[in-house]
Design goal:
single chain, Rossmann fold, NAD(P)-bd_dom_sf, oxidoreductase, VLCFA-Steroid_DH, membrane
């Protein structure tokens, strides 16, 4: 009887130990999340500088980030391809907050062309003499999505590469010299769960590859510039959006899933230079770039990728718009390349 009871006791002790470890890990993650949201925000203006540059600020995450930076007292240089949207966003920001704004019309898909070179020179001229302390590389495109590589339009793929990869690099190179000269700054690059949270992302191969570049670029840039007082972080965005079956495009912007109040909570740890690692919070996953980081630890976000390929509830519904109105490409704001009219 005693011999039988001994193994059973050890089994329950082991089970209790495993359960205790799990509860402790869960509690740590929960309290870390709570601490990030309740932590007193850092004075970004004092820490980094008086101005911030935001690409793709007219919709989704980019717009919310721009508004949050303005709320924290930073003046803004806004880059987007649509002059009218830039004016509207700039007017909204200045009407809500006592900050200055500058706008630069820049079609990021034209980098590497004469028009793109002119736009880069306009950006350099716009920030010359400004105390630019924060750069948010937010603009990106995801079209074409949910398509076999051999069936995708080559020009559309090249456009994606130019915006997600080439333009991000050129804009960063244009802003960094001033940060180096002043010995402070922060660069926030928008990554994607498609490259960091799951091992592969079929039917979105080029998009995932460009975002893998963003992550590797951010890691190396952090090590390269940390001695110069510049913080670099790559933020991984998640969404439960799904592509419209008729257009293979993500309908709507991130506005419905990432609102200003959520970004208000998220922007602290994303932009806080003293944070060395944060968990998923407020619908966003900020991945700190560590000095000797290898592969970032995979998060449990497989459900997010599954949701993107799941059939929508209605084949014709697209945020209240018809499928035909969801076919206008844009390079503003979020991971979405298009938004419904």
């Amino acid at each position: 009887m005693t011999e039988t009871a001994a193994p059973a006791a050890w089994f329950f002790l082991l089970l209790a130990f495993v359960g205790g470890v799990y509860v402790a890990a869960f509690s740590f993650r929960f309290f870390a999340y709570a601490a990030l949201c309740l932590h007193r925000p850092r004075d970004l203006r004092r820490r980094y500088g008086a101005w911030a540059v935001v690409t793709g600020p007219t919709s989704g995450i980019g717009r919310s980030m721009a508004l949050e930076l303005a709320r924290r007292g930073l003046n803004l240089v806004l880059l987007d391809l649509d002059a009218a949207n830039l004016r509207e966003t700039s007017d909204v920001i200045r009407s809500r907050h006592a900050v200055k704004t500058r706008t630069v019309v820049f079609d990021l898909s034209l980098v590497g062309t004469p028009q793109g070179d002119v736009a880069i020179r306009r950006l350099r001229a716009a920030i010359e003499g400004l105390d630019v302390g924060v750069l948010v590389n937010n603009a990106g495109v995801s079209r074409p999505s949910s398509v076999y590589l051999h069936e995708a339009d080559v020009e559309a793929l090249l456009r994606m590469i130019r915006v997600n990869l080439w333009a991000l690099t050129e804009v960063t190179a244009a802003v960094l010299p001033g940060m180096v000269e002043r010995g402070r700054g922060a660069v926030v690059n928008m990554g994607s769960a498609s490259s960091e949270a799951i091992p592969s992302f079929p039917l979105n191969t080029i998009y995932a590859a460009t975002k893998r570049y963003v992550a590797a670029f951010s890691r190396s840039l952090y090590v390269e510039y940390r001695s110069k007082g510049i913080d670099v972080k790559c933020q991984v965005n998640t969404t439960n959006q799904i592509p419209h079956p008729a257009t293979n495009e993500f309908c709507g912007s991130y506005s419905h899933s990432v609102t200003s109040n959520r970004v208000r909570c998220a922007a602290g740890p994303i932009l806080r230079g003293d944070q060395d690692g944060v968990e998923r919070h407020a619908g966003l996953l900020a991945v700190a770039v560590r000095p000797h980081a290898g592969r970032l630890r995979k998060r449990r976000l497989a459900g997010s990728a599954t949701a993107r390929s799941a059939p929508p509830p209605s084949a014709t519904s697209c945020s209240g718009a018809s499928p035909a109105s969801c076919r206008t490409p844009r390079t503003t704001g979020s991971v979405c390349a298009t938004t419904c009219a």
